[in-house]
Amino acid sequence: MKETFKLVATVAAGLESVVAKEVRALGYDCQVDNGKVYFTGDVRAIITTNLWLRAADRIKIIVGTFPAKTFEDLFQGVFKLDWEAYLPLGAAFPITKAKCVKSRLHNEPSVQAITKKAVARKLQQVYHRPEGVPLQESGAAFNIEVSLVKDKATLMIDTSGSSLFKRGYRVAKGGAPIKENMAAAILALTNWFPDKPLVDPTCGSGTFCIEAALIGMNIAPGFNRSFAFEAWPWVDQSLIQAVRDAAEMEANYDIELDISGFDIDGRMIAIAEQNAAEADLTGVITFKQMRLQDFRTTKQNGVIVANPPYGERLLDDKAVDILYNEMGATFAPLKTWSQFILTSDEQFERHFGRVADKKRKLYNGTLKVDLYHFYGQRIKRQQ
């Protein structure tokens, strides 16, 4: 098996810089492209990045790339790749995904079928199995993806399994929850640090608060879940355990955090508390049923982050306008607090009553949204 791998962390559009910063912080140099962060690493890198990356979607191994304008090009290109360096005899190798963009080959089921046939033919040759006899796929699964963009094929193996946003703590959710990895990425885009108060006044199922607590305590986001690579025979179980043990040692469970989540719906507060308990954060976050407009505080230099309901999600236009107006009026006295609001409403600033200091375009799933930045006045904190 290989000692080093070409790897790619996939990421939602607009958040590439966040993931790149995370990858570099883990010690890996990287290059950024649209929706992708490329880096090279060994088996430990596969384990570490899956365990620690907060904002990425998946970690994939790039098996190879080649031009493919015809199905014969695709078959021969796939066949020439060194599949034996990844797939042991008996491995299951479903072609789970095919994507064709601006390519002559555009029939995705056919691309999947040709890819499957070529990988099988290569393994039959390498492992000296007769062509007419199907390979037994009774072992660990290696999910293969094929992408064709402008007649260039890229073959990848997914190392993550379920998407990395599935941390394992969300036992229940509301009507339009934000994904865990997007919440973590938005927190990274704010000016919040663990020594500052953090409030989510429309907390729903508590995702922002829980992700902030995981960041503040330096808990690896993948600590309570499993990954596809853990079933692969060439990934040393003792190495997996060593990386997990090291992550446990890096967590700071004693840090004092000031994180609060409020919601008008008491059922959502109960769900948020349940999710926090599942993440072993009972007592770390303060959740309370409360109307947004009732929020008051004398604390300084805090950060508000919110993903309030908006038209495409939960509320009608008039209710949204009222909510944003109340939000602006409630936050206006908090001169030293910074506010970061995610919404798709292009009229948000008008209803909020302030022009944002900065605006960042993102995607909440397939919905185009903006993250509005409002920075508080800086005052020196008391020592």
Model description:
There is one protein chain. The protein has 383 residues and is α/β, with parallel strands linked by helices. It has helices spanning 16-25, 43-52, 71-80, 108-126, 180-189, 207-216, 237-250, 266-278, 317-331, 348-352; strands spanning 5-10, 30-33, 36-41, 58-67, 95-101, 144-149, 152-158, 198-200, 259-263, 285-289, 303-306, 338-343, 358-364, 367-374. The strands form two sheets. Strands 2-3-1-4-7-6-5 form a seven-stranded mixed beta sheet. Strands 10-9-8-11-12-14-13 form a seven-stranded mixed beta sheet, with helices on one face. A hairpin with a 2-residue loop joins strand 2 (30-33) and strand 3. Helix 2 crosses helix 7, helix 3 (71-80) runs parallel beside helix 4 and helix 5 (180-189) packs across helix 6. The radius of gyration is 24 Å and the shape is elongated. The chain starts with a strand and ends in a 9-residue tail after the last strand.
Q: Note the main sheet.
A: 7 strands, mixed
Q: Please report which band the strand proportion falls in: under 5%, 5-15%, 15-25%, 25-35%, 35-45% or over 45%.
A: 15-25%
User: Structural class of the helices, strands and pairings?
Assistant: alpha/beta
Number of strands: 14
The total count of helices amounts to 10
Low-confidence stretches: none
Order of helices and strands: EHEEHEHEHEEHEHHEHEEHEHEE
The residue-averaged pLDDT reads 94
Q: In order across it, which strands form the biggest sheet? A: 2-3-1-4-7-6-5
Rg for CA atoms:
24 Å
Oligomer: single chain
So what's the overall shape? elongated
Terminal Cα span: 55 Å
